[in-house]
Amino acid sequence: MAEIRAFDGLRYDPARAGDPASLMAPPYDVVDDEGRAELAARSPSNAIHFILPEGEGDAKYPVGAARFREIAAAAMVRDDAPSVYLYHQRFEVEGETFVRKGFIALIELTRFGHGPVLAHERTLAGPKRDRLELMRACQAHLELVFGMFSDPQRRWEGIVDPQRGEPVLQADFDGAHHTLWRIHDEAAIAALTEHLRPLKIYIADGHHRYETMCAFREELEAAGHPEAKWGMIYLSNLDDPGLVVLPTHRLAHDLPAVDLPAVLDSLAPWFHHTEAPLPGDAAAMREALATDGPATFGLAVPGAGTLHVLRLRDDFDPAAAGLGGLAPALQRLDVALLHELVLERALGITKAAQEAKTNLYYYKSTERALAAAAGQGDEEVQLVCLMNATPVSDVVAVCDGGEVMPQKSTFFYPKIPNGLVFRDLELRKG
């Protein structure tokens, strides 16, 4: 059972902090050094100052904690009653406008496999240690995990929408318009809590951050913290028409050689192969790989001008392909088949090398991947693997089966930024 609850969030005070767009930052793991410098220059109160603090090694964590406390005192306000935060993102993809709706609340933290919160990605020790050290230093939940629940009738919206009032935040940031409302009506919160209780929660993004909160929960419980078991999360309806998943493409590089005819021969027993001119844009790429059934992906040698479309045969036998050991939810999943049959078996990129991103780049931009396929990108790239977006139904099936997909199998767009609301875990005195 999923237990959620309201909390007294810590938010930027526009009267003191300034334009909300100057305060927000993308998730820490998509920000490089140049991007960090640009965000930090926007405002001395920008969230990047404590999400990615300056300094070397472990010295950066107390720096981040000091900046967080300074900025909280100078530019933030704590809400005076427990609230949930209704959050909409309006954005465009290929000329079509979407609005993704969700809310921010606390959730009872349970380890993957031991409660209603389910994962579809494997996590790595390094990022979890980094986020745990920052969480310890700051004594706060600073970053949002993105979770999903199933509500085909969208009943949760009818519970909270009448309580909207005026927004507490509006901003245009990172290609989307963000609107945040504070919901503090006790009856609405109770109804929302009851509505979510029987549902499963599927992590869309932020697996490392969620597992870090679980580890921190155990430390706080050992120290007797009364609020230890709750973590901050953004939840959205997986049946929402505004839920958009985009593909992440794979680019193989720095291999001894890539023999595409040999790769195609190795796939011939399992896939139909057709050739087409390389598409010129993302919409044409999506049309070239369109499918309502079998797993489909494309391969392109940079500069060759040809897209090789591979579509899984209807009579595909996973056992005959040597994939009988894969979980049923993965045996016909395009990204799993690409990793098993192309990257590992045909190109020799082992699972360990895939996890370490050795010989692989991951591009979220279809336009950038097409540019590489056209020979306009990194000269080291030898093969571009062009992907469809993973359907949410496949994510749910993998989660329900207790399995995980290859890394970067899903790209829920847009990302959830930092700077909407924070949860202070430092115990107040008096």
- How far from one another are the termini? 34 Å
Note the main sheet: 9 strands, mixed
> What's the average pLDDT?
94
Strand content: 25-35%
Strand pairing plus helix content: what structural class? alpha+beta
Query: In one word, what is the shape?
Result: globular
Query: What proportion of the residues is helical, as a percent range?
Result: 25-40%
Total domains: 2
Rg over alpha carbons: 23 Å
Number of helices: 14
| Number of extended strands | 21
Pick out the low-confidence regions.
none
Main traits of this protein?
6-stranded antiparallel sheet, 430 residues, single chain, 21 strands, 9-stranded mixed sheet, alpha+beta
What does this structure look like?
This protein is α+β, with helices and mostly antiparallel strands and 430 residues long. The protein has two domains: 4-244 and 414-424, no CATH class; 248-388, no CATH class. 30% of the residues lie in helices and 25% in strands. The protein has 14 helices and 21 strands. The protein has helices at residues 14-17, 33-42, 48-51, 60-75, 125-138, 155-160, 186-196, 207-222, 260-267, 282-288, 334-346, 351-355, 366-373, 392-400; strands at residues 4-5, 10-12, 76-78, 84-93, 96-108, 117-118, 140-141, 145-149, 169-173, 176-183, 201-205, 230-237, 244-246, 249-253, 271-277, 296-300, 306-312, 360-363, 381-387, 411-413, 423-424. Strands 1, 4, 5, 6, 8, 9, 10, 11 and 12 form a nine-stranded mixed β-sheet that branches. Strands 15-17-16-19-14-18 form a six-stranded antiparallel β-sheet, with helices on both faces. Strands 2-3 form a two-stranded antiparallel ribbon. A hairpin with a 2-residue loop joins strand 9 and strand 10 (176-183). The longest helix has 16 residues, at 60-75. The chain is globular and about 65 Å long.
